[in-house]
TrEMBL record:
Main location: nucleus
Key words, A-Z: Metal-binding, Nucleus, Repeat, Transcription, Transcription regulation, Zinc, Zinc-finger
Domain C2H2-type: residue ranges: 18-49, 50-77, 78-105
Transmembrane segments: none
Keyword Lyase: no
PANTHER family, sorted: IP01015P-RELATED (PTHR24377)
Protein name: C2H2-type domain-containing protein
Subcellular location: Nucleus
């Protein structure tokens, strides 16, 4: 009963206590947040509707896409001398170079 009264009071004060972690939109009622998330953010397992506009990668949620897009804007200082692919970390370059030598980077 107290919860219903609190929810009702929020409709008068305009207080929006519920925030969507995907897009930062706020809601007065938890039920409205849930409806919003189902309509705009819930995807089926394996579905990847968020496509990167700079490469062919796709993601299941917008947050991961945003994090991925940073990789396109950061300078990649370690370049492969055989294919010119760039890497943020030297260790990633070293692992990548194994494919040119036809070696598997990891062994079971």
């Amino acid at each position: 009963k107290h919860s219903n009264q609190s929810n009702h009071l929020r409709t008068h004060t305009g207080e929006k206590s519920y925030k969507c972690i995907q897009c930062d939109k706020t809601f007065t009622l938890r039920s409205d947040l849930i409806k919003h998330q189902i309509k705009h953010h819930i995807t089926y397992i394996g579905e990847k509707p968020y496509q990167c506009s700079q490469c062919d990668k796709a993601f299941s949620d917008n947050i991961t896409l945003i994090e991925h897009k940073i990789t396109h804007s950061v300078e990649k200082q370690y370049q492969c001398s055989k294919c010119n692919k760039g890497f943020l970390l030297n260790s990633h370059l070293i692992t990548h170079q194994l494919i040119h030598n036809r070696k598997k980077p990891y062994q079971c």
